[in-house]
Amino acid sequence: MLALALGAVVMALLLGLLLLAQAGVLASRAASAADLAALAGADAARGLTSGEPCEVAASVVGQHNATLTSCVVTGGEIVEVVTELPYPFNVGVATGHARAGPPP
Asked: What angle do the packed helices 2-45 and 53-63 form, to 10 degrees?
């Protein structure tokens, strides 16, 4: 009986560790999508690539299976984006935030 209870405790701890690791991975993916989208949007804002900055950013975010929740172009060349990536089973969302512009 004691072995069964200890086994259940170990399984619960492993499940918690797995969920924590998955949260870290999803947060990293949301941040990567935001970084790449901000860089692509900034390139479009500066005229280095064609397209509207926020449309280009939305396209990049979509390729990473994330959602663009905010895109702001400041000063004509600086792009700031916020992305969301949902956790499985509707537990919540991981968010990413990035800002990119011309070099100083």
From this structure: 150
Give the DSSP H or E segment for 71. strand 67-74
Single pTM value for the model? 0.84
Q: Where are the domains of the chain?
A: 2-100
For residue range 50-102, what is the model confidence (pLDDT) as tens digits? 999 999 999 999 999 999 999 999 988 999 999 999 988 788 899 999 999 98
- Please, are residues 45 and 61 in contact by the beta-carbon 8 Å criterion? no
Judge whether 37 and 98 are in contact, CB under 8 Å.
yes
> For residues 12 and 69, what is the distance between their CA atoms, to the nearest angstrom?
34
Residue type at position 79: V
Please tell me the distance from the alpha carbon of residue 79 to that of residue 8, in angstroms, as a whole number.
49
Which token pair is 71? 């895109």
Q: In which band, very low, low, confident or very high, does the pLDDT at 23 lie, cut at 50, 70 and 90?
A: confident
